[in-house]
Specification:
This protein has 15 helices and 2 strands. The chain is an all-alpha fold.
């Protein structure tokens, strides 16, 4: 905590009381607003593309390439996450943040002006690459530009920055497509990026690169090589289960698992206490929640006869409670030990999974509402704590790689788990749909329970 030192008037100097930093005081407000605006912009574009893409592919007469357009963005993001971490540690977060924003904008322009699916795929690849650079650089930026006391509050607001785009983004995107055409879903975003950069520019200029920062090493080149393997595997993932009677998915998943082993901190896949287990927890929890978001709407509509609007309500409850959980942990983070707060959040997710499994077994569909409420509160309180812990457990010259590992665990484990869950689901959905939904939601619950066990073990060791 900083102190105000008043000039000496007499024989001694007077030292004022400590000043508690505030996120929206005169010094930090432009930075906080700029970060939140940029996160909201990235969130809106990600959600807008999901809504508009069916129209885009139909207009380009390329519906069969639909999976590739999404896989290209993820493949680019994986490369950006790795490079963003290395660049943040060796040159400071300013460079990958500026370059990431520029590449993101260029990718949007290419996609918006594309005359065929090739241009669209290249645009999406660059868009994902720029997003990956920015996502990691923003975490490292928070670590270096804000005092640690403000980290829980800042990371809590990251979730809030996703809520408004999640609620109004699909409707707004539909209006843009109907009134102006699908190209403006991409072309309207670049002008909005400039104010974000303007707000962040003073803080970017203040962050200097000192001699203690990470210097490029041979291991950095190996990391980029493994990132390329992970990206290529991600591009192949949508089609792999069509090869060799479904067995083609196996080598792709193995390649992703080996890449994860190489890119994540040593011991992550074994849940070794410390930074490795924190990174792995992010992947486990993210993959579990992604499985819920993918299969719950289908369960409610196909098995429970809910309308799309009703099914969307359950997801909206999850999004709003996620934001509420993030704000709760930000307000009360200092009252509870970090690891025990983490355990409580994961336990809330496990509790929320039980009604969802009951719905898959024939219980009333309305049980999904409290289920999503608890799941959202749980993940909302867990994600910011994991971000704070990664910065706290990483040396100053390794915060970029720590943030990169956090994002990579999220992306890689989600890709692997959803692919495996999809394979299991497709094997059962026609003959026994109830069992198919129970399997995929059961896998999600298993991931949460593994995370709960690891979190409990870590909390006891620190008690």
């Amino acid at each position: 905590m900083s102190q105000v030192h008043l000039p000496a008037v007499g024989p001694t100097a007077v030292i004022g009381p400590p000043i508690t930093p505030r996120l929206f005081d005169a010094r930090h407000a432009p930075l906080a607003i700029g970060i939140l605006a940029l996160v909201s912009l990235l969130a809106f574009e990600a959600l807008a593309v999901n809504t508009a893409m069916p129209v885009v592919m139909q207009a380009l007469q390329a519906t069969r390439w639909y999976p590739l357009v999404f896989a290209a963005a993820m493949a680019g993001a994986l490369l950006g996450m790795v490079l963003g971490g290395l660049q943040s540690d060796s040159h400071g977060p300013g460079r990958p943040l500026r370059w990431g924003l520029a590449i993101f904008v260029f990718g949007l322009l290419l996609a918006g002006l594309a005359q065929g699916v090739g241009g669209l795929v290249v645009g999406r690849l660059l868009q994902g690459f720029g997003s990956g650079l920015q996502a990691v650089a923003l975490y490292a930026f928070v670590g270096r530009a804000l005092p640690p006391a403000l980290h829980p509050r800042m990371f809590g607001l990251f979730a809030a920055a996703w809520v408004l785009p999640a609620l109004v983004g699909p409707v707004l995107t539909g209006l843009i497509v109907d009134l102006a055409g699908w190209r403006w879903v991409f072309l309207a975003v670049p002008p909005l990026a400039l104010p974000c950069l303007w707000l962040l520019w003073p803080a970017l200029q203040r962050i200097s690169v000192d001699a203690s920062m990470h210097r490029p090493q041979a291991s950095d080149h190996r990391a980029m090589g493994w990132a390329a393997v992970a990206s290529l595997s991600t591009l192949l993932l949508p089609w792999a289960d069509r090869w060799w009677q479904g067995w083609g998915l196996l080598p792709v998943l193995i390649a992703l698992a080996i890449s994860a082993q190489a890119l994540l901190p040593p011991g992550s896949l074994r849940l070794r206490p410390g930074l490795p287990s924190v990174v792995a927890l992010r992947g486990l929890i993210a993959a579990a929640f992604a499985s819920i978001e993918i299969y719950l709407p289908l369960l409610l509509q196909s098995q429970q006869r809910w309308t799309p609007t009703q099914a969307g309500l359950a997801l909206s409850v999850g999004a709003l409670s996620w934001a509420a959980g993030s704000q709760w942990q930000a307000r009360y983070a200092e009252r509870y030990p970090e690891h025990w707060g983490l355990v409580a959040g994961i336990a809330l997710m496990a509790i929320g999974m039980l009604p969802l499994l009951a719905v898959a077994s024939g219980a009333p569909a309305a049980w999904s509402i409290p289920g999503m409420l608890f799941c959202g509160l749980g993940i909302g309180s867990v994600f910011p704590r994991l971000s704070v812990l990664v910065l706290a457990l990483s040396a100053p010259d390794a915060q970029g790689r720590g943030a990169s590992a956090l994002q990579l665990a999220d992306a890689l484990l989600t890709a692997m788990v959803t692919a495996l869950a999809g394979l299991l689901f497709s094997r059962w959905v026609e003959s026994a749909p109830a069992i198919a939904f129970q399997i995929v939601l059961g896998v999600a619950l298993l991931l949460v329970l593994v995370g709960l066990s690891a979190g409990w073990r870590g909390a006891r060791e620190l008690a």
